[in-house]
Every structure is written in C-alpha cells, then in structure tokens.
Fold each of these.
Amino acid sequence: MRDLADAWRAAVQGAGATADDHAVAAEGSALLARWAEPDRHYHTLEHLATVLSVVDEEEAAADQPDLVRLAAWFHDAVYDPHTPGDGNEQASAELAVVSLVTLGVPTMAIDAVRRLVLLTAGHASQADDRDGALLCDADLAVLASPPAAYDAYAAAVRREYEFVPDAEFRAGRAAILRHLLELPALYRLPDLAERWTEPARGNLIRELGALDH
C-alpha cells in the first residue's frame, strides 16, 4: 500500500500538519488497518482508493482539495454495520479530529474535514459547497458503474449486513436507494453529473425494483 501511504502523507502535509514524518506515517498505518478490517466487503481499501482517484481527477473543482482528500481518508474509517443512523459518520468525524489534532493540522482545516466527513451520511451537499460536492460525488462514483460491477457492489454491501434478516435488509436498503433518487442532484459537479447521472439512476432503479419484488 505504498501508493496510499504516499497519498496520505501528501494530503496531511498539504493541510498544514506540523508533526514529523514518523507520526504522520503512524497515523496513516492505523487508518489503513481500519480500512483493511476483515469484515469489510465494500467499504474497503479499494473503495478508499477509488474515492481518492476521483478527487485527484477532479481536484480543480474543489476549493481545498487536500482537505477533501483527508475527508475521504476518514469518511468510512469507522465502519460497523451494527451502528444505527449516522453513528459511523459521527465516529469517523471524531476520529478525524483526534488524529489531525495529533498531527498538528490547523484548527480551521480540522473543522472543515469534520464537516465534510459528516456530509457523507446523507450526501446532500449544497450547490455552492465545492468541496462537499467533490467528496460526495466521489463517494457515490460506484453507483455509475457498469451493471455487473454495480451488482458486485450491492452484493458486497449485503455481505456486510449478513446478520440482518432479508426482509429487514430489503426495506432498509430500499429506503437508502429512494433517498439517493430523491436528492436534488445525484452528482453536483457538472462533468460528473453529465457522465454519471443516467447510468447511476438506472442502476438504482434496477436494484430498487429487485428489492421490491
């Protein structure tokens, strides 16, 4: 995971951290270990890498791309499918605060990262929130995958919730899909919206139809 470790170091330094390289590396290793937990099937290092790659590709759309990158690192750092509501996002945001304080990141930057992490609970970024739009769009990139890849994503999510009875899972998953379909815009960045909205909505509607039968 050398590439991810390098990406972490660059984002932390770009955010103004004052900690030495050893401390930065230690925090990065701890984060990578979280993303590699064995019970994860979708919220994995692969998902992290995908989100970061979208942020890199679209960084010109953001006001503070390094803070968006840090938010990407933390947005699912705490992930327990047993946790209700936005508990995972809340815990991930607080982990970001503790970790970034340790690394000497300026308070304003930490506050911005915390806000961005919390946005991923509902993906309802405001139209004028360029950083939030980029993070949310990157987090939802999987929805626009080709159908077979989307189906693999949906199956991986089901595996993470294998302890939930089927009827209960179907109802909960359907509610999430409907929320996404009812967002004012599924993707906020114009070029991503143009490319991804139609395939993403097609996948969501197709999965929703399967859940409702």
Note: The chain has two domains: 1-139, 143-213.
Amino acid sequence: MAAILDLNNKDQALSYLNACHCFGRSPTNVDTVINAQEVSRIHAVVEWTDNQWFIRDISNNGTWVNNQKLIKDTPQKLKVSDKIFFASGESHGFSVEDLSPPQNMLLPIAQQGDQSPIILADGNLLPSEQNPEIALFYVPSKDQWYKEFLVDTDGSAYPVVNSDLLFFDNQKWQLKLTPLTENTVLMAKAKLSVEQIKYRFNLSLDEENTELTVTTDDEQFSLANKAHHYLTLSLARHRDEDAKQGIDEDNQGWRLPETLIKELGYEITLFNTHVCRAKQQFRDMLDGACDGDELIERKGKKIRFAGVFYRIYKGNELIVNRGQDKVSLTVLHG
C-alpha cells in the first residue's frame, strides 16, 4: 500500500493511500485534508493505474513534485522519495515513502511501539491464528466484508465497511479497504448449488485424523487432515441422524453450538475458529462458486452442515452414505 509522510509533522504516522486518493481543502470530498485557503477544495489526485501510481493536478494554484510544477490534468508517475507540494513549491508538503500496490489492511489507531498495519487476506483470524479473537472475511458473491466475534455462541457475522473501527488485542484498528478499480476484472466461476457438491470424509479408526475429498461436476479437491474437517464431519453425522429419523431436508442437522462444544470437548472460541476455518477453506477451494456460508449454515443460534450428498468412511468401513455410490479411495487406519 502506497504511503506518504507529512513533511510538516514528521513524527506523525504514515498516511496510506486509497487506489484513488484525493487531496484538498474540502473535508467531505477528499481523503487527505489540507486546511489552507490557497489549496483548492479538491486539489490533486493520486491514482493506481496500469500497475503504477500517478499524481494529477486539478487545482487553480498548482501542484509541485520535486520543485517542478505539474501540467494541469496531466498524470505524472510517482517515485519513492518524491516530494509533493500543494499551492506552492514550499508549503503543504508530503514525502512519498512507499509505492506498493493497493491492499486491504487494518491500521492501528494508537501506535504501540512499532505496531505495523495488518495486511488482510480474504479470510483472517485476528490478532493471530494461534490466539484468535475475531474473524474478518470477505464474501465475493456479496462483495462484502464481515466480522465475527469468536466468543459469541450464535456465530453472527456483521457487515463492515471502509473506515469502520475494530477492537481486538486490547487495541483499536481502522479498516482500510481498497475498492475494485476499473482495471480489475473478476473472473467469476459459474455458481454451484449445494446439490452439485459431493463430500467424502475419511476418518481414521481412532478418530484422530480426518481427510476430506470434495467433488463437483468438473473438479475434485483432496483436502489433507485438518482439525476443522472433524467439526464438519460431526455436523454431517448429525444431519445423517435426522435423515434416518425421517426429518425433511430443510430441518435436518440443526444443532445448538452449546450441544456441539460439549460433544466435541471444545471451548466456544475454538469451535467458532474451526467453523471459520472450514468456511474459508470451502470459499477458497471453490473460488467464489459457492460461499462457505452456504455449506455450513447458521439459522438463529443453530448451525448445520448443508451438504446433501456425503459419505463417511471410518477406516475402510462405510458408516454414512447419503445419496452416493461407493468409490475406491485411499482409506485411513487409526
């Protein structure tokens, strides 16, 4: 993420640029406010275009880069250590410190030592995978970011937007999201329904290891042993129990987290962390063709596995078969 330093206040933290970042006097129309009468309401814009950063003057009183006045409305490529001045060649100056591509990130509100911004992936457990407090994730089909508090028993996901504040690790953070630009092309896959996805769980005899194979009409994904696969498998078992009792598909498998954490021996934070990891793996694996929230569903305080076609093998024994034929796959032995 590109960053600039205010030359009039070098002790201030770096300012990170949006993909289209406006400078000027108007507090409601620009990203960086310069409170001076000689500065235009919208004075200049820095833009990420063709994988490069450019600055463009759109003011009445001019913009200077390294003491050279820019030609109005003509983009000029920026370089690290460039000095930018607004309305004169000597005042309201900024130094270009970084010209990395735009990225989604969290900015610390109050610096604690050398606390750095957190660069975000599409799925994040914060402050760390080892000690998560919240999940922050992006759902491509909705073009929306969400936060989830991992101590909540209801597993509610709350939408968040650019500049929202989050609190974790005893610190406030501000969300800085980079919107899609006109140069970004989304190569979305065709949407998959839950009925087009088949699952095979390979469970070791001692139930210590769980592998998962996911098959669609066009692809097969073999997922190595992960702790969150056992959670998904447990949800599938509950769905199978309800199916055997003749409960209709819409009502199969719904369980309260309190019931599941007692059964699995988890704390609620670990339970929600495994749910987030499972959803994110489905989301990444299917590349937006089906969201994790569609495969592990929440309704009120209850949760369930949404799969319709699934098999569970324990060692080499088929113990659950919902709508699928046997196939030859490697089995796990405990």
Note: The longest strand covers residues 44-49.
